[in-house]
Amino acid sequence: MQTIGLSGAEWLAVLRVGLGLWWLESWRHKDKKGWFERATGIAWAADVAGKHRWSFVKSGFATVVQPRPRLMAYVVVYAELALGLGLVLGLLTPVALVGGLLLNLLYLVLMIHDWAEQGQNAMMALISAVAFFAMAWQTWSLDAAIGLFL
Q1: Is residue 2 part of a domain?
Q2: What is the pLDDT of residue 150?
Q3: Which of 9, 28, 45, 119 is buried most deeply by CB count within 10 Å?
């Protein structure tokens, strides 16, 4: 494979770090006080799920998320932080990539009607899949430095 400027593995590391920064920005811009004290993000998602065209989304949200709004708010916010840090640092990278892919697919299904969000979630899911299958943790990562996932 020929590339410009960096090796293929280094470009994959750039992609991985960029995805991690995207997750960190998602975490950074959240109103933490609203999410944690009033569960505003979960309330918004409950409204979206309640109007969803697919019944399994409504029932799944009502069963798993709605009874635990504060816990789920913490899970969502800190999952985004953990994904971002894991990808930027390259620590437990395969776990972060699979977790991010699953979270983006959840967001994609929940917000199937919101085309503005769909592009972001689809792109992040695609980057996660490419980085996972190309083993983007081999370069510029703590995983590589300590010999994990070789």
Answers
A1: no
A2: 84
A3: 45
Closest by CA position to 150, among listed 134, 135, 131:
135
Quick one: DSSP state of residue 58? Answer: H
Question: Which pLDDT belongs to residue 119?
Answer: 87
The answer to whether residue 3 sits within a structural domain is no
If you compute the radius of gyration of the chain from its CA atoms, what whole number of angstroms results?
A: 17
Asked, for residue 54, whether it belongs to a domain, the answer is: yes
Structure token pair of residue 135: 């083993």
Alpha helices, DSSP H only, in the chain? 8-28, 32-37, 40-50, 55-64, 69-89, 93-110, 115-133, 142-146
Flag whether 1 is in a domain: no
- For residue 5, the 8-state DSSP code is S
Locate 71 and state its tokens: 């816990």
Q: Which residue has the higher pLDDT, 114 or 121?
A: 121
Domain count, the chain: 1
Token output for 137: 């943790």
Q: Domain residues for 81?
A: 8-146
Closest CA to 16 of 121, 99, 90: 90
Cβ pair 139, 10 in contact under 8 A: yes
The residue type of 41 is G
